[in-house]
Write a structure and sequence with these properties.
Two copies of one chain form a homodimer. The first copy, chain A, is α/β, with parallel strands linked by helices. Chain A has five helices and five strands; from the N terminus they run βββαβαβααα. Chain A binds chain B through residues 41-44, 46-47, 50, 70-72, 74, 76-77, 79-81, 83-88, 90-91, 93-95, 100, 102, and chain B through 41-44, 46-47, 50, 70-72, 74, 76-77, 79-81, 83-88, 90-91, 93-95, 99-100, 102.
Chain lengths: 172, 172
């Protein structure tokens, strides 16, 4: 299964495409950062972000999109731009007809490190190992997007299985 | 000039189309609320909101889009959904090739009432009079979208003129 992970942001939006399946190491297909200029009008920035995301979708044809969830603990001023970017990413996935999942940073850290409060160095070391890379993913900003993609491959699939099992009554 | 005003929201997004020009009363072309179900997945809600906004754009062919600016004084939990909806509205305008402006609620109140802290009743009474309606606009939720459209017609055009005049050196 091929997943596009997105670490949403207006100035820098991380995107990572990973191919893999639950419990096995994944393969990095592509990684990058979509940048928009803070001095440009907001509508133009959203348009450029959308174009950049659609380019990744068209070139790499993922089967699902996973976006880091924006959460309310953040600084309120910065949360608005991050929320707008996450909305654009989710819409791009939905318009491509793909399932779209969201994960909090701690869910993502727990998925790759087994510890929801792992620090950035631990997370980068783990994603480098999981994807069998010789060096940490570059640009560093995009590492989080790869982590979100792996989270979906590992956790999302597990959740789907649990949901299916529950629906089938296997838990009763 | 025809303007689409948007009062962004995920559960209820007000949309109002107004035709007019600076300083003269406007005409209401259309008004409505795009609703999405809070129990539906977020990506699906954003998709439905985008489809609803595009439907207004295609049916009424405005020449500009004006969106109420999401601001940080709001409750942080609700601001995320409002910010996502505003991002979708700005993107829809930009993708239609239209200029997109944003106004704060107090800029909008000042534009229609001459007082940035006017209350909801005053604003509704003024927009009803400005648009020459016999009754307040319905649904009530959408009145704010009409106010944002009028704000753009009156204030945005004035700002454009000031900018042009300044560029031409008329103020030196």
């Amino acid at each position: 299964m091929r997943v596009m992970g997105v670490d949403p942001g207006l100035t820098r939006c991380g995107v990572g495409i990973v191919e893999g399946s639950p419990g096995v190491k994944g393969t990095m297909v592509a990684v990058g950062v979509i940048r928009t200029d803070p001095n440009t009008e907001l509508a133009t920035r959203l348009f450029e972000l959308d174009a950049g995301l659609r380019d990744f979708l068209e070139r790499h044809q993922p089967e699902a999109v996973a976006v880091e969830r924006v959460f309310s603990q953040h600084n309120v001023a910065s949360v608005i731009g991050t929320a707008q970017a996450s909305g654009i990413a989710m819409l791009a996935g939905a318009k491509a007809g793909l399932p779209v999942a969201t994960y909090t940073p701690s869910e993502a850290k727990a998925a790759v490190c087994g510890n929801g409060s792992a620090d950035k160095r631990q997370v980068t070391a783990m994603i480098t190992r999981i994807l069998g890379l010789t060096d940490p993913p570059k640009p560093a900003d995009a590492a989080d997007a790869l982590v979100i993609a792996i989270t979906h491959l590992w956790r999302g699939s597990l959740q789907n299985k649990l949901r299916l099992a529950t629906q089938k009554g296997a838990w009763r």
